[in-house]
Structures are given as C-alpha cells and as structure tokens.
Amino acid sequence: MSREVTYRVGLIGPEDLVARHPALRREITVQVHDLDADPWPVDAALRWVGREVPRVDGEAKVTGAARYTYDVHPHGLAFAGVLGSPHAHARVVAVDDAAARAVPGVLAVRTFAGRRVTYAGQIVAAVCAENPRALDDALAALRVEFEPLPAAVTTEDALAPDAPRVEPGRTEGNLHAPPEPGNRAAVDEAFAAAPVRVAAEYRTSVQTHSCLEPHGCVAQVHPDGTATVWASTQATSFFARGRFSRELGVPEARVRTLTEHMGGGFGSKFGALEWDVIAAGFARETGRPVQLMLPRRLEHLLGGNRPDSIQRLELAGTADGVFLGLKGETFGTAGNGPGGAGAANHSVYRIPALWMRQSEVATFTARGAAFRAPRHPQGFFALESLIDLYAARLGADPLEVRRRNDPHPVRQAQWELGAERFGWAAARARRDAGPLRRGAGCAAARWLNAGRPPWQVDLTVRADAGVLVANAAQDIGTGMKTVLAAVVAEELGIEPGRVQVRLGDTRDPAGPGSGGSTTTASLAPAAREAALRAREALAARLAEHWGVPAAEVRSPAGGFEGPEGRRASFAEACRLIGDEEVRVQGTRRPNWAGPFGETAGCQFAEVEVDTETGVVRVLRVVAVHDAGRVLNPLTARSQVNGGVLQGISYALYEEKRLDRALGDMVNPTLDTYRILGLADCPRVEVLLTSLEAGFNNCGAMGLGEPATVPTAAAVANAVFHALGVQVRELPMTPARVLAALEEAPR
Amino acid sequence: MAEDPSVPPARGITRRALFQGAGAAAAARALLGATPAGAEEGPAATPWRTQGPGAVDVALRVNGAERTLRVEPRVTLLEALRLDLDLTGAKPVCDRSQCGACTVWLDGRTVHACSVLAVEAEGREVTTVEGLGQPGRLHPVQRAFVEEDALQCGFCTPGLVMSVAWAVAQHGPGLSEAQVRRACAGNLCRCGTYPHVLKAALKAAGQGG
Ligand code: FES
Ligand code: FES
Q1: Is residue B40 pLDDT above 70, yes or no?
Q2: CA of B107 to nearest chain A CA: how many angstroms apart?
Q3: Class of domain A451-587
C-alpha cells in the first residue's frame, strides 16, 4: 500500500540563512501511501506554491459582493434576539412577556423563568419578530423579575473561602486543582543547589475575541423536511449537530450548513451555541427563515473569553545563563466552567527540573473559549518576562540566555536572522535620558501542528477545463481557498485562476474545524492528491483516445505526452471528457515524522514609553516564523501581521472589566473595550523561514496561532528594558506603567 | 477653530449640521413628534419637519440610482441599505459609530451608516462600496487592496476601502502615511490588516486612484 520515498527536506529560504545553516537541510525517507503524491523536495521548482498568489475571493471581499452570514436575507426573513441577565448570579423568578407579545410584528417569544443564571448576559428570554425594530421594542418590553444572589466574578474573589459557589454542592469550592505533581522534593533540591534564583508573579486579564462579525446564524426549515443554516462558524461540518438539529426538528443529515465567508472567530466559534439553538427553535416554530446575530454588548459578554491568569513562577539557573529549574503555581478562570485556563509557560526551553501546578477557578462569568493559541500568550508573557529578569540579574544579554537554552535548531537560526534584521545589539545599547524611553525585547514562539487526517477533498473537471475543488471546511480569512487553488494548479500545471474552490458547504465532504492552525495543512495535501487523481484520469482518457497503453502517457507540467510525439494540453485533454465530468477524491494521509519537530518562531519588539504619562507605544516588530513550507507568502504575512497586532492589543489595551459587586461587564463596547487601531499600528516586518517540514506531501504546518504567542512577551520585555522595571500585569495600561515606575528604585 | 484639512470630518453628524438642526438630534426629536421650541436660527437653518412614528417615503440616491423606500424614520441608513436595498457591503458591527465597518459616503464624505438615519440621507448622494467598483471593474483602491492582501476575514474591508478611497480622493498622489492613518483611525480591523492597508492606500494614491 505504500512506497518508500527519499527526499531532501529542511530550510527553503532565505538563501543566506540556508547557506549558514547546512544542518537545516537533510535527507529523509518516508513511507508514501500508494495513492498519495510524492512530496516536494526542498529545492523543488514550483510555479504557484510558495508564490504570492492574490486571494481568489479578494475581489468579492473588496466590493461588498461577498455574503457573510449576517448578509444572508432569504425571502420572509424574521429577526431574533435575546435578553441577557444583568446579574452575575440570580434566580429568574418570573418573566412577564405580555407587553412584548403585544408589540406589532412579534412572532414568538421564549422565556426561561425558573432558571438560575450564573453569569451576566446569560439568556433569560428571546424574541422573534418581523423586523429589527419590532425585535428591539419587544426585548425592551420584557419584564423580568430576578432574585439576585451573591456572586464572585474575579479569580481572586472566587478563591476566597466564603465565596459563593458556581457549582453549589462542590466541596472544593470554586477551585479546580489538579493533583500536586509528585516530584516537588527533587525540584526543591535542584533549586537549593542553584546559584541564581528569580521569582515573580505575573497577571493577565480576560480578553474578548471581539470578532467583527458577531456570533450567530440564519436558520430556515423548508416544507420538504430539509433545512438550511448559514452560520458564522469555524466548524461548518459540525454546526448542526445534536441540539441544533433537534431544535430545528430536522435530522442532521438533512440540514445543509453554509459558511461561504466568515467575519472572524479566533477560536470562539465552534459548535452551535445557546442562541443558535434558540434561532433553530424559532425557525421551526414560525416556519420562517430566522436570523439571530448577537449585538455587540452580548458579543462581548457571551462571545468568548481568553481566560485570565495569576502566575507565580520561580526560575533557577547557573551564573552563566543555563536554566536549572522552574517552579510555578498558576490560577486562571475560564468563566463558569473549568477548562482551558492553564498557562503554557514551560514548553520551549530545556528546563531539567520542573514543578508546575495549574489550577482553574470557576467564577460567575460567561464561558471561556479557545482563543488563538489558547494558554500560550499568557504563559509566554510570564516565563519570557522571568527569563529577562534572570538575564538582568546576571547582567547578560537576554537573547544570548535564550539561545543557550533553546534546543530547537530552526529557532536558533531564526534568533540569528531576527536579531540581525531588528538591529538587536544597537537597540539594546540605546540609553535615553529624557522622559521618553525606548527599549527592545524578544520572545520565542512555538506551535505543534502539521494538520491531520481523515479528510477528503472532491475535485471535478469538466470539458471546458474548469476545475472545481470542494470541501465543507470554511475559510475564516486565512486564505485557504487561495492556497488550495494554488496547490491544485501546481499539480495540474494550470493557472490558479482556472481552479474554483468551494468551501463551507456541507453538501461537500466534511472538513476540519478551524482550530489549532490545522486547516490548511489538513486539506492542502488532500487537494494535491485529488489533483493527482484528476491528472491520472485525464491521462487514461488520452491513452484510450490515442490507442496506446495508459502507462505510456506521461503528464509533465501543464500537459500530456504520449509515444511518437503525441501531445495534448490540459485543455485538450479535458475536451475528451465530453458531456461527462471527471470526479475524483483526494484523502488526507497520516503525517510522516518530520525531523524538525514543532513549528518555531521568535519576535523582537521596540517600544517607546512616556514615563510621565505611562503610555506605551510599540514602534516596530520583527516577526520570524516558519509554517512548514509557506504555501503563499502573501497571505502568510497577513496572518503573521494579525497575530502580532492582536498580541500588541492584548499587551497594551484589552481587558474585560467587570463590576466586582454586580458582575456585569462595564466596558462592553468597542470604544470602552479598546482594540488596536491603525493609529496604534507599528511597523511590522515579517520574515518567513519557509521549511519543507517532511510531514505531508505539501510540507505544510500551521501559522495562525504561533504568530500571536510571543508578541505580548516581547513587548513586555521591551518595556522592562526601557524602564528598568517590569510591568507585571497585562494589559500594560498607563496606570499600571506609572504604578510600576513608582515602585522602581531610582 | 482652524480646520485641519487632513482630518476627516466627524462621522455621521458634523458639528455644523448639528447646530443647523439637520443632524441626528433633530431627527430624534422629529421622531418624538416634538415641535422645536425657538427654531434654531443658525445660518441657513433647515426647516423642521416632523416625521413618523409610522413609515414614511424616503427618496434616496444610492450609487447613482434613485430609490424610493418606505421606512420608519428611526431606520438607520445602514439598515435601509442592507435590508431594503440588499446592499450588504456596509457591515453592522458596533451600531454606535465605534468601528467604521459601516462606512459609506454621503455627498462624498465618509459617514457611519449605522449612525445616520435613512431620512437624513434624503436628497443626498449615497455611495457604498458596491458603487465604488464591482468585480471585474475594480476601483484602484479596491485593486490595491487585493494586490497587497489588505484583507483577511474581510468583514472590516468594505469600511476600510471607503475610508481609504476618501483619503485618496482627498489628497491625491501626495497622500501620506499619516493621512491614511488619520482617515482610517475610526476603522477597526480585528484580523490585523492595517500594515497591508497602508501599503494598498499608498499604492492606489501613487497610481492616481
Ligand atoms: S457599525 Fe457603524 S461604526 Fe460600527
Ligand atoms: S479583515 Fe477581519 S476584521 Fe479586518
């Protein structure tokens, strides 16, 4: 079932880096499935893959022609919305909906009397109406009687011994602590013997995803017992599962889910959520297509949170910069259920003695959700800050300390490249006398994924040489449609413009959810295999047409050759299809063992801090990343920009602030919950160290998440360098900067 | 106060329009059916008109075409464009003039369509992203956005295109980076397209967009 292929893998570019690091290229042997395409060697001459192919849906997006879920308006559309609890903890005693039902244009009302709400914003009633104004009027006319109950909305308040409990009977209160790791004594011993120890506590705040397109869907039940749902989701293939299709009253297999374009998810838009299920119920009840999109306030409250963190860490090392051990105790809240609130803060460097306990704390706040590189930005902020504290103690260059302890061969090359392009030595040597202080910092990135099975991609070719590639996965803005077009064009030897890619339609084979930076690396290899199948199918038709054995038809790039000088272009071969179509499928095969391991990256930031106002400005960032083989540098750079800018926004601005007594969010708008704007945007230089990673037939790995892992840490280290004192809580607001300066020794 | 020509006017309601009584405050009062006391005597005061609360006819000129709608006076321009005219390029994101995703032009100036009433746009020229250019015949700014990949999820993109196109129209080939930053200061993008937006804006301006 498989064949052995030996090929060269490793660093594709930039060239001078390749020349300096010969060890980053090597030969490996892999078992390639018989039906799979041969992997491209590191020096393969490719025409489209690895080139800057503009987004295939770019024109649709810049002209407003692209239809997002919010833009779908089937005939007879009704509008649904929900009313959220203003209390973090309360019993819904009664809901009087008489006035709401009396509003002209109201079609249906649902209420949740008797419910115990455990976070502000939790749904207590919902309305479906003819138009958005009737909906607003009816929501405003609902009268809800609450019996407020005591709540604890911050991690610290929820840890207090007498704190009200999110799960009433739970004896451990709100703390969800894993068993203590058993090696404490050994780690303590290593610490006792260590010449240098540094310890500090770092904190991060809850960040909301703030997708511009809010969560929601449009659901429609058809008279023939089928249903259509347009969903703003990162998992089109799985959206209609379970409760959603049950509420629709239509079996999942008869629900068609569509996500042609999607306005941002960042981890918060996987399955159908409570309001989606409510929309499904209204669609069944009213027989009308129903749109339910969250308004901004509820989007902030319910749409998802990156858990906060309190991280108490201690690092031990030698006097010359070698790490000996790390101890840490962390707490974080992912809202009213535990899960995902740990901090990834010990995963990059060689650390021989490690003791780490990560606890989660339930609070009376809305659910946490995966958020671009879950657990990583918070964990990296703390550990990378502590490393700079250690380096400062030694009087050492923090970059050199990192390089001494970094086992990853690719990141070693990246540190070197980034430091050069950033001008690290000069930036660190700078000393400012006035109130404006500049500083430079750096931090590492990592990620894990090279995609995975079991997905299938359909490919159809017709007589007019038009190619259609299809899978139900969604392009959430990464540019996956464009990458699949380029991969298929490469394999078929045609222009990407000839390849249409249809994504986000469950009539096509199921695809992965967009999580873990896996989607492109999961589907591109399957698309390539599908294109290989199409090439073979066309060759077979040509063989028949020419009357020669199939084995004698070869298909070099862009065409076909047979014995005795016979030739056919791709288009000529396609004409043989006639009225039929060539319909083939490619499968995502299991990964091989790529020799370089995880995805690597690192970032460098320069900041300017105004010591009189406490305002931090990021002046420039140099971001060095691989993504396995970079399939499209243009869209890849966009993704890295996005990761960096979200990271800066996280470092400086974003904080979901809760009223500690009432539990409601006090800044649920886009002017009070600030995200980075163009005026704040620094110069970002993206350096892609493309790497044929040896995991799959495209060499691809993930990129969306690693790009945001190190940014806040690099910015914080730059602030430390500028001020000589650390700001240990994110976001580094002017108040926190000034407070840190107050405490600094002069 | 001297007006800095590189600063775009406040979106939705200009200060002058507010004093003239043609802004949203006036419209809101019209909505309540209140008769204004002591009609504002600003220069060229707009006469008061009470409309609503029921639906009224509104004649709009959108992307060069005359369109007559029947809408409640409280319907925003954004809702009218999206639901009545099916022009869904302008996006609803914050509904409160905080994000710029709904940016359109009113008489050639950028406004937040979420914060302008449809009745306020009567008799004025509305240009949406669809009116700027279409697939196959893109406006130079739209073309530069595609070439420089100044979009990811694309939800902010129509608004950014309109703000950039305004800046390009305003400043021409001499458009500076600082002017782009100011013109787009009210346009939020969660995906982080800003660096490519800057490149696209300067490219389009340089090409005489
Ligand atoms: S929706 Fe109009 S400015 Fe945000
Ligand atoms: S491209 Fe997604 S919000 Fe700007």
Answers
A1: no
A2: 20
A3: alpha beta
Beta bridge partners of A567: A561
CB pairs under 8 A between A and B: 183
Contact B198 A677 (CB under 8 A): no
- For residue A129, give how far its alpha carbon lies from the nearest alpha carbon of chain B (Å): 15
- Numbered ranges of CATH 3.30.365.10 in chain A: 1-34+428-450+592-746, 451-587
Can you tell me the distance from the alpha carbon of A291 to that of A518, in angstroms, rounded to the nearest whole number?
30
Q: Rounded distance, CA A511 to CA A521, Å?
A: 12
Please answer whether residues A518 and A512 qualify as being in contact, where contact means their C-beta atoms are separated by less than 8 angstroms: yes
Residue of B51 and A331 predicted with greater confidence: A331
Is residue B2's pLDDT more than 80? no
The residue ranking higher by pLDDT, B20 or A174, is: A174
Asked if B94 lies within 8 A of A670 by C-beta distance, the reply is yes
d(CA A625, CA A706): 8
Three-state SS for A393-456 is HHCCCHHHHHHHHCCCHHHHHHHHHHHHHHCHHHHHHCCCCCCEEEEEEEEEEEECCCCCCCCE
Ligand 2 centroid to B91 CA: how many Å? 11
Interface residue of A52, A61, A62, A632 to substitute, partner B, most B CBs within 10 Å: A62
State the fold for domain A69-150+215-293: Aldehyde Oxidoreductase; domain 3 (3.90.1170)
When pLDDT is averaged across residues A551-570 and rounded to a whole number, the result is 92
Mean of pLDDT over chain B:
84
Which pLDDT score is estimated for B46? 64
Mutate to test the interface with A, among B129, B153, B182, B199 (most CBs of A within 10 A): B153
Band of residue B45 on the pLDDT scale cut at 50, 70, 90: low
Contact criterion met (CB below 8 Å) for A624 and A439? no
> Domain B140-204 carries which CATH code?
1.10.150.120
Q: Which atom of ligand 2 is nearest to the CA of B154?
A: 1
Domain boundaries, chain B: 56-130, 140-204
Is the model more confident about A63 or about A450?
Answer: A63
Q: Do A670 and B157 touch (CB under 8 A)?
A: no
Q: Which helix (H) or strand (E) holds A458?
A: strand A456-461
pLDDT at residue A86 is higher than 50 = yes
Q: Is the dihedral of CA B87, B93, B97, B101 positive or negative?
A: negative
CATH architecture of B56-130: Roll (3.10)
The pTM is what?
0.94
| Integer angstrom CA distances of residue A166 from A306, A342, A620, A665, A666 | 19, 19, 43, 18, 21
Q: What is the CATH number of domain A1-34+428-450+592-746?
A: 3.30.365.10
How many CA atoms lie within 13 Å of A438's alpha carbon, on the beta-carbon side? 13
For residues A745 and A724, what is the distance between their CA atoms, to the nearest angstrom?
9
